[in-house]
Fold this protein.
Amino acid sequence: MINISPSIASSNLLDIKNEIKKVEDFNSYTLHIDIEDGNFVPNITFGIKLINMIREQTKINISYHLMVTNPLFWIYELPLRDNDIVFAHVESYQYPKYIVNSIKNRGANAGIVFNPATSIEQYKYLVSVCENIMIMTSEPDKDGEYFIDDMTDKILIAQKLQFKNIWVDGGIDKNRIETLNKIGVSNFIVGRYFFNNDFK
């Protein structure tokens, strides 16, 4: 199985209604929203007002990626619906299990995210409480971001630790999807490659 979640931050934001329709017409797994605060990562993307407008515009499930220094604020402000997914970085909070439980208390599915430099093994204790894990396969918010080949090893470690629902994000194109799907990855965040190409 291959689940594609287009990242709306990579779309033409001046034409966001039609870009959302493109995501819906593709029968995407989720609409992916990267929330970046200019602190945890250099870029700034969406505020709550625009996120609420996006949520009202579509019935598709949304996966939120909190690339922020204060994930708890966003967890309690997001317009969550059943089957939405909220991903928070383990690097952003000292007690990630508390973050996972906070997401679940809002009725959403929980996910944790690992930057390329972060080891997974010390977070094995989250396997039983977290439905999703996202591995960043490139550095965030850099021009011409490329897939880091060493992240394949991290994917295999996550599988060995029995993490479920492994997602990958960063430098993902069709060839990379085919390669990673062969080793068991099903969930792919696709940004520029989806919106800048005739993705089929």
Summary: Residues 3-195 form a domain with the TIM Barrel fold (CATH 3.20.20.70).
